[in-house]
Amino acid sequence: MPPSLFARLAEHDYETVVFCNDNSAGLRAIIALHDTTLGPALGGIRMRPYASEDEAIDDVLRLARGMTYKAAISGVNLGGGKSVIIGDSQTQKTEPLLRAMARCIDALHGVYIAGQDIGTNSHDMAVIAQETAHVTCVAEEAGGFGDPSFFTAFGVVAGVKAVLERVCGSDSLVGRRVAVQGLGNVGYRVAQLCHEKRAHIIAADLSTETSQRAASELDADIVDPRAIYDVECDIFSPCSVGGIINDDTVPRLRCSGVAGGANNVLAEPRHAMALAERGIAYAPDYLVNSGGLIHCQAVVRGDVDRDRVLGQVSRIFEQTLAVFEKAEAERITTAMAADRIAEARIASARSRVARATDA
Fold first, then answer.
1. Residue range(s) of every CATH 3.40.50.720 domain in the chain
2. Contact criterion met (CB below 8 Å) for 29 and 83
3. Which CATH topology does 149-290+318-342 take?
4. Which tens digits make up the pLDDT trace of 300-349?
5. How far is CA 196 from CA 191, 243, 249, 350, in A?
6. Which of 21, 131, 291, 325 is geometrically suited to a Cys-Cys bond with 102, CB 3.0 to 4.6 A?
7. Has 82 been annotated as catalytic?
8. Between these two residues, 271 and 9, which has the higher pLDDT value?
9. Per the residue annotation, which of 82, 93, 161, 197 is the catalytic one?
10. Which fold has domain 5-67+79-142?
């Protein structure tokens, strides 16, 4: 028998899970807050036609916990949270549904700050902003700072360069083959930035139109989405959904390293070891894709300086190398090394809070 929801919450010390329902708007959603030690929980709203409620719960829990670790390892003073809406974003996303979701967020009184994710965008966040102030990634034409995906992609490329430095002795992308899975807002920009640095792009996406655009604008070789794992390349950059590094795909990979914008790319923690056993360098996803979160922190603080934010995002290069060094020194996987760095920061913050409370 699978563990109960309460058992799963206890295992990783989740703080709050909220189930949201509005029949009139067609809303079925879940908000998960993992840890708010470092600050209010920030995380995007994902909208997908989940096959079951259990699948939606599993996704939101994994994503919320990942946001805690992402904030901690990147030095962001925010906690980890996430929300999911059960439904097809192409056919079921409406203004009443988004407004209903916004009211659920507002009822949490700022402990959760929402942003965009798969199935939502900055224009949706503008709708949500009409019902609650606890939202970021709002479209520029609505007075916000827009889609943070450029900053996410910028950080992913910093992670790509760190992997190249580690496995090739040089961070240069010139002539390197980068296989990008998923050409959404982040993935396309990753491909674009790598192309500008004279890398050769191999790409896969479900959209024929987007694929053709990449072929035209980036001189990318387009492959079937099912074949992207089999492409010979220097870097495999997953920028779509999670769980794609698994028992089926690990043996098929023909790359030197993995660094991408997708969250939770490892189907299970043991797959980090499976990659290591094949000599494939893995840059932990929640570190290399933290650029968008760094930008969102600046927005939340009301102090957005593009050059300063990009400077902070650029540190992902050094942070990724530090993870590789820790993994080597402690003879653990890079996933475990990143977790230990993040957990140490959270523990330090909890200790400071405890001392302040005792005083």
1. 149-290+318-342
2. yes
3. Rossmann fold (3.40.50)
4. 888 889 999 999 999 999 999 999 999 999 999 999 999 999 999 999 98
5. 9, 29, 29, 43
6. 131
7. yes
8. 271
9. 82
10. Rossmann fold (3.40.50)
